[in-house]
Specification:
mainly beta; 198 residues; 3-stranded antiparallel beta sheet
Length: 198
């Protein structure tokens, strides 16, 4: 891990290596303990950058082509509830801690990546950029990679499915999600997530 303090001049912009230890935590994942180079006080901003690799874990699920509806390409999805996202990325895996996130996901040609983010963009080389500017608990961070396409099913909702299933999915959900959102807004106030994609 490396860190920098924001707003402290040119030297503060460079990442500095941090002392760290990994300690076992549950049957999967580990607790990362870092030592900051100097004390911080309330109101300080510290940026910590962690390089990591995710291996096999209970939060990442793989389907072979034979297990998909189209039978042509594999499919990967994450399932973070309740505390499984710690096997997918470094996080405070508790609903009590909320954070924003951004991600850059590169996938092979013929595949699409979708995340539980408000903003997303596809670039030329099949790289997808995602940003969730609203703080959420880590279990709500989700990723799907597969041979998937989308269809609008309302003014602010979209369904994702394999190409062979998209028309059936669109027919099933067309207009229904907007009714759900409108009912929720009557009960709880405005829907703050902008779009509902599933």
């Amino acid at each position: 891990p490396g860190s920098r303090c924001e707003g402290g001049g040119p030297a503060s912009e460079a990442l500095r290596p941090l002392a760290f230890r990994n300690r076992p935590f549950a049957g999967y994942g580990s607790a990362l303990h870092i030592t900051l180079p100097e004390p911080v006080t309330g109101g300080d901003t510290v940026v910590v950058e962690v390089a990591y690799r995710a291996g096999a874990g209970p939060g990442v699920c793989w389907l072979t082509p034979e297990q998909t509806a189209g039978k042509q390409k594999p499919y990967m999805y994450t399932q973070g509830q309740a505390v499984l996202n710690r096997s997918f990325f470094p996080c405070f895996d508790t609903p009590a801690v909320k954070s924003t996130y951004s991600a850059v996901i590169k996938v092979p040609d013929g595949f699409t990546a979708v995340m539980s983010a408000i903003n997303w963009e596809k670039q030329k080389d099949n790289t997808f950029l995602f940003k969730m500017p609203r703080p959420i608990p880590s279990y709500l961070v989700a990723l799907v990679v597969g041979d998937i396409v989308s269809a609008e099913v309302g003014p602010r909702s979209r369904v994702w499915a394999e190409p062979c299933l998209i028309e059936a999915a669109k027919k099933e959900y067309d207009g229904v999600i907007e009714e759900f959102l409108a009912t929720g807004e009557k009960l709880f106030g405005p829907y703050v997530w902008e779009r509902y994609s599933f």
